[in-house]
């Protein structure tokens, strides 16, 4: 079976004024379709950088990045944008939602970008909002929602266009740990039901435990790639 | 259904309506000023053309004479000897009503018998006009008015209308009023009083002369016959040609106003640019999120363009409406200047043509698109979120700022070169634009430099908060840079226009001091202070020369001289060696000029020389009453009286060439110790029944300066408008910038800054920005002033002005900048200081 994510010897450097600093050192990583992976590591260890490379938001400085069969390094910006649009669902730490759109519209947006509009789009978005328990808030502006509710909307938005891969970067950031865990549990559950591959950054043991596999990153290096090993 | 993607950005301006409103105001004001100037100019020109057209009626050709007009006898011989029956004599003059507000009326002296063919409306049997025509011949001082004019003046037939003609108050007996249903004839008589030619001659003191003869010719053959018949000194022209050369006189004036209106447009463009850049910067988060979930760069660009175009279109439409209103306001100022300096025109109503509106619309939209280009690009280039943190974005800004500055410097140099070498006025404007944009691009870098220099001082004297304020200006450079540049441009324009007006004033006042030497000036009353071409009654000069206390008198004969292009002012005068020092020479050596002048040459003014590329040794064609003469030019003198150009020749030669020994004004030198004002009184009592304008040296200078100041009234209005637009823009931009940092301020409150300290922080920051704008505006404004004074003024008017360095202009401008900036800090400081830290932190 071809893995949906396949990284080989990926390196990432950042310019910081005059100096260049390496934040990813020869990362090898594979995620299979439908697999749920938890990424753990200290703050600043390179988790977000890794996610950015997998999603094509940022380019790798060395190594190969194959996602869904696409060689991201070989794609130009437009192609990568298109790739993200169809193949990736995102949940970020903060500022997930477009403040100028209602809850429902936020969920409809990825569908629209993929050319799905009208009744089918509406039904799908509403179904997902129902799944995350916010069907009754569809018309509300995002800034009226609590942090946890906003993240649930973000989960719905990440899933609605049925991307093969969902990326969640510490979606628990500004939530209390219970709420944060609930969000991730929801995400994991929905991903499993629908067969999406999921790569999520988390600090929670319980959440990590519910994943198929835990990957630990330390100072830009993957140190474990073992099933079931906890923090 | 609007797609959701569109909603996501298009709702942004709706959430910050005042910010969108500001951009709309920017476009609207720019467009308004441009079309207002256009409409006002166009309305004045149309009013003039309509009145000349209605007055010339069906005439195909016109005969005109020299400065004195055409001798009456010629008309008789034209009919009798040349057999031109279709001819009508005409004399024109002006009367001013005595009731307030005064109204200028055109006196049209006609021969009722000859009128039928020319102005048929005037001769319809049984109309009040027809009856009136008979009355004109039989009743003394009788006139006919149009219904509109009569209503405006509140007169009815049988009543007298009190007016001043040639300085003398006299009644006009209204014998008929044309009803509106008399159709075109009523429009024809708009602000015109129709009277018999003999009456007009008496009122205007032009006995024996007429101004022109209208003729109707049916073929070229007839035209050739007439041409052969004409004696030297009487020329044929057409009504259209005559009107054209008159309206052409205002060309420089109009170009200058257009330039100022374009300047307002540039300020407007900066506002759009400022607002759009701002809304892009504010939306980075949103745009970044969109980019992340798969919105392409092109889609982002299109979104921004649509939003910007919506603003541009709304702004333009609003601007068109505003412009029409503004045109009505400016019309009075434009008309006054034209009357002061160029020709008489009665205009109170604007004419809204399609062309100015179209031009304004195109300009508004094009300018907006130009201003939108960079912000749109920036928006499209927004990286998907999280790659660039805000601080690294600002770092990147700081890194490219020197390159932008270098590019700006290049712009300044290119602007200078284009201005210097460019062959036409439009190159000069392009150069000025480059210079302005270049200066704006250098501003952010200058800001960084100044802040770095200032920081240690600020910390030392203002403590940590002042230090923070200084640092914040740099760390928010993407926002502060643009706002400071916009404010800088506005202030620089204020400085430039201020310096230009001041330089103009200083130069003219100096020039008046040099040229106006006589103690007392006597002239025939003219409609305007600047138009001294009405002849003095015969004998006045001799009697004044005989008055006690007179040392000598200098005599002048001024007239408007038609040329193949616009008319020029011809002044024939006495020049003795005592008068040599009243001339300042732009070209030529006085030792050679004066003998040549006494012999056979003329001297001309600098604007005339520049406009027609004439130099000492060239010749100039004078169309004199005794024939056309090519006369050598002996010297070119500085003159700031009229940009139309002046030709001077000795009085005795004028008398021979033009067969005219009348005078229009006198300069009287009195013995030392004689009080000029007392002498003025003495002259007035000597001529109790002659209308004379007698003014002391001081009074004449004061009048001249007054006219000059009136001319700049429009300039000042436009400058004020531009400043207000800029001011509002800055206010809103700075307010937006501060409000946007609510979270940051909330955090500062949370860690213990009290509201007073927040006030201090915000106000220090905005006043620093104002100060930087003020400081940079000083050299930029000076450079713009130099360009206006030495390049643009010289090309459009032909004047060499001295540069007047006036510190108060700089001080005033710098204060404007700082005050604008401080005011801009007050609202956000008030809002932010009131908000509780918790709320501020939660917001987003
Ligand atoms: N855009 C950037 N520019 C410079 N350094 C960055 C940038 N993004 C991340 N870094 C640095 O790279 C390292 C890894 O960051 P990140 O991937 O965000 O870590 P994590 O998400 O695990 O907390 C950190 O030291 C961080 O400071
Ligand atoms: Mg991170």
Walk me through this protein's architecture.
The complex is a heterodimer of chains A (231) and B (844). Chain A is of the alpha/beta class. In chain A, 35% of the residues lie in helices and 27% in strands. Chain A has one domain (5-225): Rossmann fold (3-Layer(aba) Sandwich). In chain A, β7, α6 and β8 (197-201) form a beta-alpha-beta unit. Chain B has four domains: 1-54 and 241-388, no CATH class; 61-237, no CATH class; 421-515 and 707-844, no CATH class; 525-691, no CATH class. The longest helix of chain B is centred in the middle third of the chain and has 51 residues, at 425-475. Chain B starts with a helix and ends with a helix. In chain B, 49% of the residues are buried. The model of chain B is unreliable at 182-186 (pLDDT under 50). Classes of the chains: A alpha/beta (231), B alpha+beta (844). Chain A binds chain B through residues 17, 48, 52, 55, 57-58, 77-78, 81-82, 84-86, 88, 90, 92, 95-101, 105, 108-110, 112-113, 117, 143, 157, 169, and chain B through 1, 3-5, 7-9, 11-12, 15, 285-286, 289-298, 383-387, 395, 844. Bound molecules: adenosine-5'-diphosphate and magnesium ion. Adenosine-5'-diphosphate sits between chains A (14, 16, 23, 41, 43-49) and B (387, 389, 392).
Q: Could you tell me which ligands this complex binds, including any ions or cofactors?
A: adenosine-5'-diphosphate, magnesium ion
Query: Distance N terminus to C terminus of chain A?
Result: 29 Å
- Write down how many β-strands of chain B occur, each being a DSSP E stretch of 2 or more residues: 21
Radius of gyration of chain B: 33 Å
The third-level CATH topology of chain A is Rossmann fold
Rough outline of chain B = elongated
Oligomer category: heterodimer
- The Cα radius of gyration of chain A reads 17 Å
SS content category of chain A: alpha/beta
Mean pLDDT over all positions of chain B: 83
């Amino acid at each position: 079976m071809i893995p949906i994510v396949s990284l080989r010897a990926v390196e990432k450097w950042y310019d910081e004024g005059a100096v260049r600093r390496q934040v990813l050192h020869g990362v090898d990583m594979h995620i299979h379709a439908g697999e749920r992976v938890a990424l753990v590591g200290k703050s600043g260890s390179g988790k977000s950088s890794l996610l950015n490379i997998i999603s094509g938001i940022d380019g790798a400085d060395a190594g190969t990045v194959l996602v869904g069969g696409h060689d991201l390094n070989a794609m130009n910006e437009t192609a990568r944008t298109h790739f993200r649009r169809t193949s990736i669902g995102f949940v970020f730490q903060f500022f997930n939602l477009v403040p100028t759109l209602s809850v429902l519209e936020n969920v409809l947006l990825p569908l629209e970008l993929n050319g799905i509009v009208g009744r089918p789009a509406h039904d799908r978005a509403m179904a997902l909002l129902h799944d995350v328990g916010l069907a009754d808030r569809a018309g509300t502006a995002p800034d009226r929602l609590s942090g946890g509710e906003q993240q649930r909307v973000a989960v719905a938005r990440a899933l609605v266009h049925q991307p093969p891969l969902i990326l969640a970067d510490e979606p628990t950031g500004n939530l209390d740990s219970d709420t944060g865990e609930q969000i991730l549990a929801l995400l994991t559950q929905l991903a499993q039901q629908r067969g999406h591959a999921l790569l999520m950054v988390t600090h929670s043991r319980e959440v990590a435990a519910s994943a198929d596999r835990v990957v630990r990153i330390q100072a830009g290096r993957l140190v474990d790639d073992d099933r079931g090993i906890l923090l | 259904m609007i797609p959701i993607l569109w909603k996501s950005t298009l709702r942004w301006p709706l959430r910050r309506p005042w910010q969108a409103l500001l951009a709309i105001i920017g476009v609207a004001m720019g467009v308004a000023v441009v079309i207002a100037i256009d409409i006002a100019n166009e309305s004045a020109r149309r009013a003039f053309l309509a009145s000349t057209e209605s007055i010339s009626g069906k005439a195909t050709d016109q005969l005109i004479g020299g400065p004195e007009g055409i001798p009456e006898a010629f008309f008789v011989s034209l009919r009798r000897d040349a057999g031109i029956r279709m001819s009508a004599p005409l004399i024109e003059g002006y009367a001013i009503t005595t009731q307030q507000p005064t109204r200028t009326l055109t006196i049209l002296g006609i021969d009722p018998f000859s009128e039928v063919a020319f102005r048929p409306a005037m001769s319809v049997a049984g109309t009040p006009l027809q009856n009136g025509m008979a009355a004109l011949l039989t009743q003394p001082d009788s006139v006919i008015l149009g219904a509109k004019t009569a209503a405006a003046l509140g007169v009815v037939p049988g009543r007298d209308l009190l007016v001043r003609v040639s300085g003398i108050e006299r009644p006009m007996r209204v014998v008929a009023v044309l009803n509106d249903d008399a159709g075109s004839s009523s429009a024809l008589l708009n602000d015109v009083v129709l009277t018999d030619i003999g009456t007009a001659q008496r009122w205007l003191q032009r006995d024996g002369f007429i101004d022109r003869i209208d003729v109707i010719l049916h073929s070229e053959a007839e035209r050739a016959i007439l041409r052969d018949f004409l004696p030297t000194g009487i020329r044929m022209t057409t009504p259209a040609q005559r009107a054209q050369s008159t309206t052409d006189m205002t060309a420089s004036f109009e170009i200058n106003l257009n330039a100022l209106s374009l300047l307002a447009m540039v300020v407007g463009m900066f506002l759009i640019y400022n607002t759009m850049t701002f809304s892009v910067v504010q939306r980075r988060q949103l745009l970044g999120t969109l980019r992340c979930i798969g919105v392409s760069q092109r889609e982002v660009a299109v979104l921004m363009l649509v939003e910007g175009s919506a603003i541009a279109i709304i702004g333009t439409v609003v601007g068109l409406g505003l412009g029409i209103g503004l045109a009505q306001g400016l019309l009075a100022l434009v008309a006054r200047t034209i009357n002061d300096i160029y020709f008489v025109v009665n205009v109170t109503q604007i004419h809204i043509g399609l062309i100015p509106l179209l031009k304004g619309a195109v300009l508004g939209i094009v300018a907006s698109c130009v201003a939108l280009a960079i912000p749109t690009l920036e928006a499209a280039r927004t990286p998907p979120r999280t790659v660039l943190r805000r601080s690294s974005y600002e770092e990147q800004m700081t890194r490219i700022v020197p390159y932008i500055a270098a590019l700006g410097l290049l712009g300044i140099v290119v602007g200078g070169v284009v201005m210097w070498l460019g062959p036409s006025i439009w190159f000069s404007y392009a150069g000025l634009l480059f210079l302005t944009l270049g200066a704006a691009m250098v501003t952010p870098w200058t800001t960084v430099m100044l802040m770095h220099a200032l920081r240690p001082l600020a910390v030392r004297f203002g403590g940590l908060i002042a230090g923070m304020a200084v640092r914040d200006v740099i760390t928010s450079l993407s926002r502060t840079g643009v706002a400071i540049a916009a404010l800088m441009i506005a202030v620089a324009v204020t400085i430039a226009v201020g310096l230009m007006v001041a330089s103009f004033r200083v130069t003219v006042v100096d020039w008046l001091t040099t040229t106006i030497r006589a103690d007392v000036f006597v002239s025939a009353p003219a409609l305007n202070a600047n138009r001294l071409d009405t002849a003095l009654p015969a004998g006045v000069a001799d009697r004044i020369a005989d008055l006690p206390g007179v040392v000598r008198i200098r005599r002048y004969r001024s007239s408007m001289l038609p040329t193949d292009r616009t008319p020029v002012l011809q002044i024939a005068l006495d020049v003795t060696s005592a008068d040599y020092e009243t001339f300042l020479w732009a070209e030529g050596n006085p030792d050679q000029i004066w003998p040549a002048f006494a012999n056979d040459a003329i001297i001309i003014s600098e604007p005339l020389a520049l406009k027609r590329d004439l130099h000492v040794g060239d010749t100039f064609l004078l169309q004199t009453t005794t024939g056309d003469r090519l006369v050598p030019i002996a010297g070119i003198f500085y003159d700031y009286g009229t940009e139309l150009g002046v030709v001077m020749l000795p009085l005795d030669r004028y008398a021979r060439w033009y067969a005219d020994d009348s005078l229009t004004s006198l300069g009287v030198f009195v013995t030392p110790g004689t009080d000029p004002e007392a002498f003025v009184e003495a002259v007035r009592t000597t001529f109790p029944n002659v209308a004379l304008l007698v003014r002391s040296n001081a009074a004449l200078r004061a009048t001249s300066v007054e006219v000059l100041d009136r001319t700049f009234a429009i300039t000042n209005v436009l400058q004020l408008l531009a400043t207000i637009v800029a001011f509002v823009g800055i206010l809103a931009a700075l307010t937006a910038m501060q409000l946007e940092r609510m979270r940051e301020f909330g955090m500062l409150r949370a860690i213990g800054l009290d509201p007073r300290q927040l006030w201090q922080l915000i106000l220090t920051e905005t006043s620093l920005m104002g100060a930087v704008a003020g400081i940079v505006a000083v050299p930029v404004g000076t450079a713009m002033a130099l360009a206006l004074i030495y390049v643009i003024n010289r090309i459009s008017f032909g004047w060499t002005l001295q540069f007047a360095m006036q510190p108060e202009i700089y001080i005033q401008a710098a204060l404007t900048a700082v005050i604008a900036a401080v005011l801009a800090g007050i609202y956000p400081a008030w809002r932010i200081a009131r908000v509780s830290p918790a709320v501020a932190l939660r917001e987003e």
